[in-house]
Specification:
Blueprint lengths: L6 E4 L4 H9 L5 E4 L4 H6 L2 E4 L10 H11 L4 E4 L7 H7 L10 H7 L2 H11 L6 E2 L9 E4 L9 E3 L10 E4 L4 E10 L3 E11 L9 E8 L3 H18 L2 E11 L2 E8 L17 H9 L13 E8 L4 E2 L9 E2 L7 E2 L4 E9 L2 H19 L5
Parallel strand pairs: 1-2, 1-4, 2-3
Antiparallel strand pairs: 5-8, 6-7, 6-8, 9-10, 9-12, 10-11, 11-14, 12-13, 14-18, 15-17, 16-18
Length: 369
């Protein structure tokens, strides 16, 4: 694919992918939930494809917009499609798909297939069951195919739907690996610490991450070898993420996200031309010889509305991204923007991020989440 090629990006939020694509010279068509100011600036054209009044993708609006705005364009997808392989299959008809196939999505997000695969490969994970535990305390209920923690609840907090599964809640550090895959092996770009931003009915909502963590060499090698085995078994390609818990020096896989994750942006500036370009190249079977040496530590945090408000009451500093369009109204818990910070090390990036979150919240007259 050359920068003159037509390109379609679909995701819950396409801003980071679009900006990375811009570093390689692309001006994509972007279809996501927000069509925010940053996304519009980075795209040839952008259109929101949410079910009105919700934060859910509307398949009919998505397919109609794709046909109208980007017929035959090459396709890259981000978050929001993990549980919708059939929708990706429909969307990719007549297009070159740069990402994991619908069949791979279905396999990797099926607990009945993914966790037995981990077991067979000797990759550790928390206890998992497909039926409700007799005693729900200490268990989570998860909805396959959701993103950003939206489908995670304490077991017993709601009735299980078809396809939901249960995972033992394990204490420890919530980490992830951001990696590229070429269908045969993986290249880890970096390790990240993640945290939640609990909201009513969404206690495990994704809150943000900091990249550039250093793991013990033995642990890093173990995770890299496990990723190589997973890629060889599943044919994973492009940018992906692996979430895991680190507990007393031992790691436990929580889930695999078979698409570009929010954390890829923490490493994008380290790669000339951006990681979007490497996503395309990895999907064609090419990996970098080695991960780039990080030039800085980067962190970001999602700011959620604490009360009903509108965009007009907000002032956004230069270190905010995903800026809402004029007149946007927010319900409590809705994502408003992301705050970003860069420093020479992880501790410095986190300290700067906290200061900026505090300053942003103070400017709004309330504590930012």
């Amino acid at each position: 694919m050359s920068p003159s090629s037509r390109l379609l990006i679909v995701a819950v939020s396409g801003r980071a992918l679009a900006q990375s694509a811009g570093r390689a010279g692309y001006r994509p068509v972007v279809l996501d939930l927000f069509a925010d100011r940053d996304t519009r600036a980075a795209s040839f054209t952008s259109r929101p494809i949410a079910v009105p009044g919700t934060l859910r993708i509307d398949p009919a609006r998505l397919l109609d917009a794709a046909r109208a705005l980007a017929p035959g364009s090459d396709l890259v997808y981000g978050s929001g499609f993990e549980g919708r392989p059939r929708l990706i299959q429909r969307l990719s008809r007549g297009r070159a798909l740069y990402g994991n196939t619908p069949a791979a999505l279905a396999a990797l997000r099926s607990p009945a297939r993914f966790f037995p695969l981990l077991q067979r490969l000797g990759i550790p994970h928390p206890a998992v069951r497909l039926t409700p535990p007799a005693r729900p305390n200490g268990w989570l209920m998860k909805r396959p195919g959701t993103a950003g923690g939206t489908g995670v609840l304490p077991a017993g907090a709601a009735s299980a739907a078809r396809g939901d599964y249960f995972q033992r809640l394990e204490a420890g550090d919530s980490l992830s690996a951001t990696f590229l895959a070429d269908g045969l092996r993986a290249t880890v770009l970096g390790f990240n610490r993640q945290w939640t931003a609990p909201r009513p009915r969404r206690p495990y909502l994704y809150g943000g991450a900091v990249g550039g963590l250093t793991l013990r060499p033995r642990l890093r090698r173990e995770i890299e070898e496990a990723l190589d085995a997973l890629v060889a078994e599943t044919g994973l390609v492009g940018l992906n993420g692996l979430d895991f818990i680190l507990k007393n020096g031992q790691w436990l896989v929580l889930e695999l996200n078979p698409r570009p994750t929010a954390t890829f942006e923490l490493y994008d500036p380290d790669y000339p031309g951006g990681l979007f370009q490497w996503h395309l190249r990895a999907c064609r079977g090419e990996l970098p010889i080695r991960a780039a040496a990080p030039r800085a530590a980067r962190a970001h945090a999602v700011v959620h509305a604490l009360a009903e408000t509108d965009e007009g009451s907000m002032r956004f500093p230069r270190w905010c991204r995903d800026l809402p369009t004029r007149g946007t109204r927010f319900a409590p818990g809705d994502p408003v923007c992301t705050v970003h910070a860069t420093a020479s090390d992880v501790a410095g990036a986190m300290a700067l991020l906290r200061r900026r979150l505090h300053a942003f919240g103070r400017a709004l007259g309330r504590r930012a989440a």
